[in-house]
Specification:
Helices cover about 35% and strands about 15% of the residues.
Length: about 140
Amino acid sequence: MAPAPTPAATPEPEPVSRYAAVELTEEDAYTLACLVYHEARGEPFEGQAAVVEVVFNRCLSDAFPDTVEEVVFQKYGDVWQFSPAPYLYTAEPSEVQYSAVMYAYNAEEPVVTPETVFFSTEPYNEHITAIIGNHYFCEIGG
């Protein structure tokens, strides 16, 4: 009698980024690199990636628009959600800013929680999820 065949090993599933559902075009990557340049170029790399994660978290939240472009250029009345939005064209992003974008997009272990949708040099509210460099990262709270 022939020995029973050995079951094939089940391959481990490839890790999936939290942000796999966010569409990221080359133009979006450029927009985000420019945003990081203006918002966080003097901050630690982790803080630059966290700024990108805030945009991606907003894309995945029902409280904000669905695309990178819509999130970055969103206004409430006359106020831009990201103050550098109207002058992003003046940015000169380096490989560091592009690396922060791709790191955030592909991260298996993101820097901030999925609920983190705000950052500023002052706490936006009392729902602080991280303090990185000179930025406070916050959830909406409730």
